[in-house]
Each structure stands twice: as structure tokens, then as C-alpha cells.
Design brief:
The structure holds 2 protein chains of 2 kinds. Chain A contains 5 helices and no strands. By secondary structure, chain A is mostly helical. Chain A is elongated, with a radius of gyration of 21 Å. Classes of the chains: A mainly alpha, B mainly alpha. Chains A and B meet through helix 2 and helix 4 of A and helix 5 and helix 6 of B.
């Protein structure tokens, strides 16, 4: 196993672990603010995974700039450049994630005003109703 | 202008312009209402034009944004099912906008309500028209964010804010998982376009994009598992249903009608797109096993969902919660037939989706008329209001009788189709439909009896507003007429839509021809 392959596998293992921890956090932590933090961690872990899918094994790493305008240069460039489409997908997901997080934060503030607590166990004890 | 590209753009433009417009008009409620009716009305006209074009054309319609053709850019590809769903969506959004004005007369913030409402409409239309899996993700998020915010419209009420938070958390987990599925899909196939994906899976050449680069079977397994989970959350299928009975009742009644009639369909429609267009027809054995597994899970969860929803309906005191559990039951039916996978099952699913949307919207709006008068959602507080509000009672009766499947009304015919489609698979599954309908009938009759024949409370002055009564009568007429004309509707609209949906080759061919014409 080369160093790059090891790093690649290590990266995926860490990301999957983060995904698991984040899912645990959203589902099991009682504090709503911690749930929101876990949700952002979940979103970020998934975003990094998707960026990683577009990665290419090349060494030494060259900057993604086309060296010259010719067919051969283009072929070499395409085989070494990182795939930009996953990055485009991720930037869209980041923007959408920001909208969701903002809405969640506002709702949490409003919930705190109404209940005086952010603990979901306490809120469940008082009932969801009026 | 092109009706395909225009349809989701109209409500989007109207939504974004409304906050600024409302400053100019100083929040005048009448002007805001007229603005919303104009926005939804123009969308209705546009989607009607789209509907006619899709049914008169033999192949799916293609719209490219800025001439970026299929595998390179995002395209909208509209087949008959998409056009039919767009028309139903635009029609219901228009009549519910008419209804909303009177319902929300006591509330401030009508301009914010309509900003979200028009945004929701844009998202719903985008979901049914898009030909790209990533654009589907964006449109599902547009729909979802507008829905979360609208559930919390009564921001001073504890149950509304709590329900919206719960809905938003589970919804956000679902869409994040769908996004991960998209990443894996792109990693394996090198594309996220539905036509291109389908071409790669069925070994049909497609311009520009090359061969799949990854482990197709393994990737498809992970993708389908994650995407199905996300769509089942959106469609509220057991065990991902728990947000719905809180979120739908907590919203204002017109929004409950939109959520229960249209927003839950997003999950079912997306499942259909994946299982029939992308992974439809003949597959290699490995993929066949993966898709068969997903279909079996759908059938099983759908059956549990249908029975569970029907049983829970009988335990409710809150009239809107009862209707919300009925939505879980009907979504269960839809998941079962989508999993069944035959053309008959697809016809049943399409017809039931349309019928359920209209009947459920009518039911929520009729219940909303009582809630508006009584100021409470408890069945005990609505007792005896029926005789003072004849139009609302009529609407409520038509909707409940239709939803349990009484013969001349529309849902009866789709339930017969559902029964036939599931009978091909096994008798036990078909009996789930009958059994859950009977259990639901008991719950509905209890509501109807209490509202119509119960002893009225003295302190309520019940009146019916003309605009609300008009909408209820219009939708009741639609339910009755669609029932009477069911054979015609099936022959002319549902069967062609199902046939075109089964024909994934035609879907690919339309995109390929458009792209080749551009590249040659």
C-alpha cells in the first residue's frame, strides 16, 4: 500500500466515523443547539466526501491551469486535473445548508422564547401543545 | 415563451419580488392577495399550456437553460406524468390561494406567507419538471425550506414551532443523505442527468460522457438505499412518518392542504423517477437484485404504513391530526404500488396520486372552515357546527366519502386500480387496502357524525365566507366529476402517462436527439 492509498483509506475512515458521530449527535443529544451543531458537522462531512470523490491520484500535484492550447496538452491536463463538478455540487449544497441552518437557528431561538429551555426531554415532558 | 422553462420561473420571480413589492404598497392586504392570485394564476395558465403540449407530443419535451445540452448542463425534461402533476399542483395552489385570504384575515404577515407560498410552488413544479438528479435535490430543498417555515407560521404557538423544528431536523438529515447519494452516483457514472444515467445503466450510447468508471452494482446499491431513505422521509412512510402528524396539523389549514396533498407526493414522484426511468425495465442480474430488494422494502413498509395510519386515525381527538394520519395511510398505498413495479401499478399510482391530492386538499380546507369558525382543532369543540355551515359540511362529506372509497367518487376508482395491481402480487397485500379503508371509514364517520348530528355549543357564531365556500364547492365538483369521468380520464390521461413513464428508451432518446443535434 502506497502512502497515497493509505491516506485515501484513512480519509474515508475518518469521514465515515464523523458521519456516524454526527448522526448520533442529531438523534441522541437532548440539547437542540447541540443537535444543530451535529447537523452542520453531518453536512460538512458529506460535503468533504463529495469533494473527495472528484479527487485524482497524481503526484506531483500540478495546479489546474491549462499549460498550452493544444490537443495533447488538453489530454494530459484532463488526466491530471481534479474533477470540478463535485465542487460545483458542494458549493450549491453549502449555500442550501446555510439557509437550513439559519431557519433552524431562528426556530430554536423562538422555541427558547416560548419554552425557556432547549432540552428536548423537558419540552416533551411539557407536551408539544399549548 | 417556452412553457417548459417558464412554468417554475413565474412563481419564483413572484416570490422574490414580493418582499420588495410589499414595502412599496405598505403591506396592503388586498394588493398582496391580488398579487398572489396573479402569480398563481399565471402559473396555472402556463402549466396548462405545458400540459397540452406534453400530451400532444409523442416524446418528452426538453428545455435547456442557455442552450447547455444534456450531460453538460441542467435540462428540464417533461414527460406526461410530469406535466399532469404540474397541472394538478398549479390548480390546487391557485384555489388554495383564493381560500387563504379569508382564512388568514386575523393574522398579520400575509406578504411573508405568500412569499413562502410562491416559493413552495416553484419548488414543487421544479421537482416534477426537472430532468437532472442534482436539480431534483435543489428543488426538494426549495420545497422543504418553504414547508418548514410555513409550518411555523403561527410563530407564537408552542406546537407549531416545535413541530417545525422536528420536521426541519428530520428533513435536513434526509436531504443530506440524498446529497451523499448524488456524490456516489456521480463518482460511479460520471453524470447526474436522469436520461444519461438511464442510458449508462441500459448500455445505450450517449454523447460526450464516457463509460461508467466505478463499481456500478455496488454504487447503485448504496445510492438507492440512501435516496430511498431520503424519499421515504419526504413521503412520511413508516418508520420515517413521525414528523407528519405534528407538522401538518400545526400549519394553517390551507398549508396543511398543500403539505398533505402535494408536498408528500414529492417523495413518491422522485421514487418513481429513480425506479422506473433510471432503473426501469431489463437490468443486468446484479442490478436486478438491488432494485428488487428496494422494491420489496417499499411494498413492506407501505403495507405497514397503511395499516398503522388507519389504526392511529381512530385514536385522535384533533381533527387535523386524524386527517394527517390518513395521509400516512394513503402514502403507504402509493409506496406499495410503486414497489409493485408493473404498468398497471404505475397507472394506479398516478391516478391515486392525483385523486388523493384533490380529495385531501378538499378535506383539509373543509375541516379548516370549521376550525376557522370554532377557533379550535378538537373534534369536541366542532360538535354540531355542521348544520350551521352547510357548504363546509357538504365538502367534508364528499371528501371523506371519496377518501374511504364510496363508488361514484374519484378515489374509489383509483382504489380499485390499486387493488387490481396488488392482487397480481398477492391477495394479502390487496386485502391491506380493503382492511385499512374499513378502519379509516370508522374514524371518518365518527368525525362526520359529531360535526353534523352532535349537540352544538351555543357560543359560536358560525358563518361561511363566499370565497371559502366557492373553493369548497369547486373542489367538491372536481371530486364528483373526476369520479364520474374516471374511465375517460384513465383512457386519455393516466394510461398515456404511465405508458410513457415505462418507456425509459423514449426518455433517453429525446435527450440524445436534442444533444446530438447540438453537437453535430
Amino acid at each position: 500500500m502506497s502512502v497515497q492509498e493509505f491516506l485515501w483509506a484513512y480519509m474515508w475512515a475518518v469521514l465515515l466515523l464523523t458521519l456516524g458521530v454526527a448522526l448520533y449527535g442529531v438523534i441522541a443529544r437532548p440539547n437542540l443547539l447541540k443537535k444543530i451543531i451535529a447537523l452542520t458537522v453531518l453536512g460538512d462531512a458529506v460535503n468533504v466526501m463529495v469533494v473527495l470523490i472528484g479527487y485524482r491520484f497524481t503526484y506531483p500535484v500540478a495546479p489546474p491551469i491549462l499549460p498550452s492550447l493544444s490537443r495533447d496538452a488538453l489530454g494530459a491536463f484532463l488526466s491530471s486535473a481534479v474533477d470540478p463538478l463535485p465542487q460545483a455540487l458542494v458549493i450549491t449544497a453549502v449555500v442550501i445548508g446555510m439557509a437550513v441552518n439559519m431557519l433552524l437557528a431562528i426556530l430554536t431561538v423562538q422555541l427558547y422564547r416560548l419554552y425557556g429551555t432547549l432540552d428536548v426531554r423537558e419540552i416533551a415532558r411539557r407536551g408539544g401543545g399549548e | 415563451m417556452d412553457a417548459v422553462g417558464l412554468t417554475p420561473i413565474i412563481p419564483l420571480l413572484f416570490a422574490f419580488a414580493l418582499p420588495l413589492t410589499s414595502i412599496l404598497i405598505k403591506g396592503n392586504r388586498r394588493v398582496v392577495q391580488a398579487y398572489a392570485l396573479l402569480g398563481t394564476g399565471l402559473t396555472l395558465i402556463s402549466s396548462f399550456a405545458l400540459f397540452q403540449r406534453a400530451y400532444s407530443s409523442d416524446s418528452p419535451l426538453i428545455y435547456t437553460f442557455g442552450k447547455w445540452v444534456a450531460p453538460v448542463g441542467i435540462i428540464y425534461e417533461v414527460d406526461r406524468l410530469g406535466a399532469l402533476m404540474a397541472l394538478v399542483t398549479a390548480f390546487l395552489m391557485f384555489v388554495i390561494a383564493v381560500y387563504s385570504y379569508r382564512y388568514l384575515e386575523g393574522e398579520s404577515g400575509l406578504e411573508w406567507y405568500y412569499t413562502l407560498y410562491l416559493g413552495l410552488e416553484a419548488g414543487l413544479l421544479g421537482v416534477v419538471l426537472t430532468g437532472d438528479a442534482f436539480n431534483l435535490f435543489v428543488m426538494i430543498e426549495v420545497t422543504s425550506i418553504a414547508s418548514y417555515a410555513l409550518v411555523a407560521f403561527y410563530r407564537g404557538r408552542r406546537d407549531a414551532v416545535h413541530a417545525a423544528l422536528k420536521y426541519a431536523f428530520i428533513g435536513a438529515i434526509g436531504t443530506t443523505m440524498y446529497f451523499l447519494a448524488l456524490g456516489i452516483l456521480y463518482g460511479a457514472f460520471g453524470t447526474v442527468n436522469f436520461a444519461d444515467l438511464s442510458a449508462k445503466i441500459h448500455d445505450i450510447p450517449f454523447p460526450v460522457s464516457g463509460n461508467p468508471v466505478g463499481e456500478v452494482v455496488l454504487a447503485s446499491g448504496i445510492v438507492l438505499a440512501l435516496a430511498t431513505w431520503a424519499f421515504l422521509i419526504k413521503a412520511a412512510i413508516f418508520p420515517n412518518h413521525f414528523w407528519l402528524p405534528e407538522a401538518h396539523p400545526a400549519a394553517p389549514s390551507p398549508i396543511s392542504a398543500v403539505l398533505s396533498g402535494l408536498v408528500v407526493n414529492v417523495g413518491i414522484y422522485s421514487l418513481m423517477r429513480f425506479l422506473y426511468t433510471v432503473y426501469g425495465g431489463e437490468l443486468v442480474p446484479g442490478l436486478e437484485r438491488v432494485v428488487g430488494g428496494v422494491a420489496a422494502v417499499l411494498v413492506a413498509l407501505g403495507a405497514v404504513s397503511a395499516l398503522f395510519g388507519a389504526l392511529m386515525m381512530n385514536a385522535q381527538r384533533d381533527v387535523k391530526k386524524l386527517i394527517a394520519y390518513s395521509t400516512i395511510m394513503h402514502m403507504g398505498y402509493l409506496a406499495m404500488v410503486v414497489g409493485a413495479g408493473t404498468q398497471l401499478a404505475l397507472q394506479a399510482a398516478i391516478f391515486h396520486m392525483v385523486n388523493h391530492a384533490i380529495a385531501k386538499a378538499l378535506l383539509f380546507l373543509a375541516a379548516g372552515a370549521f376550525i376557522h369558525a370554532a377557533g379550535s382543532r378538537d373534534i369536541g369543540d366542532l360538535t354540531g357546527l355542521g348544520r350551521r355551515m352547510p357548504v363546509a359540511t357538504f365538502g367534508l362529506s364528499v371528501a371523506t366519502l371519496s377518501l374511504v372509497g364510496i363508488p361514484p367518487l374519484n378515489v374509489f376508482f383509483s382504489k380499485v386500480l390499486l387493488f387490481d395491481a396488488l392482487m397480481e402480487r398477492s391477495l394479502a397485500l390487496a386485502m391491506v387496502i380493503v382492511l385499512s379503508s374499513v378502519i379509516a371509514l370508522v374514524a371518518y364517520m365518527r368525525v362526520l357524525y359529531r360535526i353534523w348530528l352532535g349537540k352544538p355549543r351555543e357560543d359560536i357564531t358560525a358563518g361561511e365566507h363566499a370565497s371559502m365556500a366557492f373553493v369548497l364547492l369547486l373542489l367538491s365538483a372536481a371530486v364528483v366529476l373526476m369520479g364520474l369521468a374516471a374511465p375517460l380520464l384513465l383512457q386519455h390521461y393516466v394510461d398515456p402517462a404511465a405508458a410513457q413513464m415505462m418507456d425509459y428508451g423514449g426518455y433517453i432518446k429525446a435527450a440524445v436527439e436534442y444533444a446530438s443535434a447540438f453537437f453535430s
